[in-house]
């Protein structure tokens, strides 16, 4: 089943379920085995093209344009920084100090 087939399958089930029972709740699981690879390739392409990068990490004399969502999804440290009300959550550039 192609990824788009999964969406069509869910839509068809929703239509038939709602036609049979107006108060029913439809539960549909969408499965797309290649989605994670597609997502990672897409994020990498956006980074390579300099698009939708929403914060700069400054470390010593180097600067890295990054996606907050990617950092937060992979790191508890950055998740806390961007979602926990810290001042860095609203800054365009975040200075990271090198610790000895």
TrEMBL record:
Q: Which SUPFAM superfamilies match?
A: POZ domain
**Cross-referenced Pfam families, in alphabetical order?**
BTB
* Stretches of the chain forming a coiled coil according to its record: none
Domain of life, per the record? Eukaryota
Please state every residue range assigned to the domain named BTB: 53-100
Q: Which PANTHER family match?
A: KELCH-LIKE PROTEIN 26 (PTHR45632:SF13), LD33804P (PTHR45632)
State the protein's name. Answer: BTB domain-containing protein
Its source organism is Cirrhinus molitorella
